[in-house]
Design goal:
The complex is a heterodimer of chains A (234) and B (340). Chain A contains 7 helices and 10 strands. In chain A, 35% of the residues lie in helices and 27% in strands. Chain B folds into 2 domains: 133 residues, 2-Layer Sandwich (Nucleotidyltransferase, domain 5), CATH 3.30.420; 168 residues, ATPase, nucleotide binding domain (Nucleotidyltransferase, domain 5, 2-Layer Sandwich), CATH 3.30.420.40. The chains are: A alpha/beta (234), B alpha/beta (340).
Chain lengths: 234, 340
């Protein structure tokens, strides 16, 4: 089964095609250009790189959040439209789980963090296990301090990765001391291949959906809604 | 079947898709308005609008195809608004249009939203002869545009501060009328005396074709504040009528000055404020006296819709003016410039 994976939830645009979970082709750019410019030509190219034509794609996986609101919408609109026209199922994959996937076999705590601005990160806490990481908590939108408090529930070292690391590494190291581990740069970025691989397993498990059912997991309300709720609360 | 264009519009708070054949036969025009969603915020919230577009864009496109009784194979090209507008909102339409053009292997056409508003006139009147003049008035724009030929746009004048529609919205909000303000003021103005209040009209420098509505808006707000401090009753109908008259007179005067200067005989109205009854009737009367004719789109095609985008796209299709799959949203796109 050929699955296209699309990752546009952070400043990285990444696209991959997997065959039964095995990577055939992948492209990734982190060049500060908008996904709107990068994404569709990348999809076209990566399908060609894989030696395939669009009718051979049997499912689409897309990183559906949390992440940049605009990035999520570009990724989801693209994935949903292609799923509709190609008449294939689509699945939403957690941006955070896709980040954690390559570290899963270690069996330790894995904590992907994305820069959510406003001194917060989007984070989930996973326990590594063979195949797929086990979700312990999340997704959350929390400050590094709150995250450290949540992590007190479990023992042992925690591996942090994701684009929140360059921003909050020092703060997390101060809060957690020797418990905190940080991956090298190459593992910080979300990968289209991880999205496609997770998507493949979801599709095999029969979790594929119609394009009309898939929604973004923003996990945060818009600023205006937060303000309105506060006003009405008073 | 002739040349069939699917139009997509998501630049502000309407999600819309339309199927248009040969530039004139409108087979469907689905508009999903978010007015009710934004009402409680007192105006359009960009992030909320963008989220709604993502939810609505596919059901709206599918409904447009269904109502038009066409299949995907019948579509010759996808035309989409890529600016000006709210960037997050535009991006949803642009991403959907690009994925469609790629998957169906048909041309992608990038349309300027204002070009779309102007083209709403060509839906009913494809025979209009150039040169033409168009007054584009909406919540975001007050532009005087000269078109020497099809596809050619020269901006003769624009607002230096608030757009006309923006002034309507802000005044309506201050008067406690609600949102969107244009239609509410228009309705109320019918019962009022347009000469009841003396309000300023900004004609700017001698001969200028630019507009300014912030002074007028401030005058209304000051009037309301003063009345409130003195605990005086405000005749809202008179205020609405006087405000509308002041806005419309400036728009009409400058439009006729532009028509004289360019020796154009046909004046088009476009944009949401083109639905304003006061503007339509005054422009009609004055234009007639000046030997010009006025055309405007039917009411439902004045506000944002995809039929007008499909129509503008049709003429670009005929010229072979296609956009690449790298097409991006351009929130401050000017009329006449192409950024792809």
């Amino acid at each position: 089964m050929f699955v296209l994976g699309i990752e546009a939830a952070t400043p990285v645009a990444a696209v991959a095609v997997v065959e039964d979970g095995r990577v055939l082709a992948e492209r990734l750019v982190n060049n500060r250009r908008t996904h709107s410019i990068n994404l569709l030509p990348m999809i076209k190219a990566v399908i060609e790189d894989a030696g395939l034509t669009p009718p051979q794609i049997q499912g689409i996986a897309v990183s559906s959040g949390p992440g940049s609101f605009t990035g999520l919408r570009i990724g989801l609109t693209t994935a949903k439209t292609l799923a509709w026209l190609w008449q294939v199922p689509v699945v939403g994959v957690s941006t955070l789980e896709a980040l954690a996937l390559p570290l899963a076999p270690q069996g330790q705590l894995i904590c992907p963090i994305l820069n959510a601005r406003k001194n917060e990160v989007y984070a989930s806490i996973f326990r590594g296990r063979a195949g797929q990481p086990e979700l312990l908590k999340g997704p959350l939108a929390v400050s590094p301090r709150q995250l450290a408090e949540v992590l007190a529930e479990w023992e042992g070292q925690v591996t942090f990765l994701g684009d929140g690391v360059p921003v909050y590494q020092q703060e997390l190291a101060d809060l957690l001391g020797a418990r905190a581990l940080f991956t090298p740069q190459t593992a910080l970025l979300p990968r289209g291949a991880a999205v496609a691989e997770l998507g493949y397993w979801q599709l095999v498990a029969g979790q594929g959906r119609s394009h009309l059912e898939l929604a973004a997991q923003y996990i945060r309300l818009s600023e205006a809604e937060v303000k309105l709720a506060a006003k009405c609360g008073k | 079947m002739g040349i069939t264009i699917l139009g997509i519009e998501t630049s502000c708070d309407e999600t819309s898709a339309a199927v248009l054949e040969d530039g004139i036969t409108l087979r469907s025009n689905i508009v999903s308005s978010q007015v009710d969603v934004h009402k409680k915020f007192g105006g359009v919230v960009p992030e909320v609008a963008s989220r709604k577009h993502l939810e609505n864009v596919h059901p709206v496109i599918m409904e447009a195809l269904e109502q038009a009784k066409v299949t995907l194979k019948d579509i010759n090209a996808i035309a989409v608004t890529y600016g000006p507008g709210l960037v997050g909102a535009l991006l949803v339409g642009v991403a959907a249009a690009k994925a469609m053009a790629y998957a169906l292997d048909i041309p992608l056409i990038g349309v300027n939203h204002l070009e779309g508003h102007i083209a709403a006139n060509f839906l009913a009147r494809p025979d209009l002869e150039f040169p033409l003049l168009c007054l584009v008035v909406s919540g975001g724009h007050s532009d005087l545009v000269f078109m020497p030929h099809r596809g050619g746009y020269q901006l003769l004048g624009r607002t230096r501060d608030d757009a006309a529609g923006e002034a309507f919205d802000k005044v309506a909000r201050a008067m406690g009328l609600g949102y969107p303000g244009g239609p509410l003021i228009d309705q109320l103005a019918r019962e009022g005396d347009a000469g009841a209040l003396k309000l300023p009209r900004a004609f700017l420098e001698e001969g200028s074709l630019d507009f300014s509505f912030s002074g007028l808006k401030s005058a209304v707000l000051n009037y309301l504040n003063r009345a409130e401090m003195r605990q005086e009753e405000v005749n809202k109908a008179d205020l609405a009528a006087s405000f509308q008259q002041a806005t419309v007179e400036v728009l009409v005067e400058k439009t006729l000055l532009a028509a004289r200067r360019t020796a154009v005989k046909t004046i088009m109205l476009a944009g949401g404020v083109a639905a304003n009854g006061g503007l339509r009737s005054l422009l009609q009367t004055r234009a007639l006296a000046a030997g010009c004719t006025v055309v405007y789109p039917p009411l439902h095609l004045c506000t944002d819709n995809a039929a007008m985008i499909a129509c503008a796209g049709y003429y670009k299709y005929l010229r072979g003016d296609f956009a690449p799959l790298t097409l991006n949203a351009v929130p401050a796109l000017s009329l006449g410039e192409e950024k792809y």
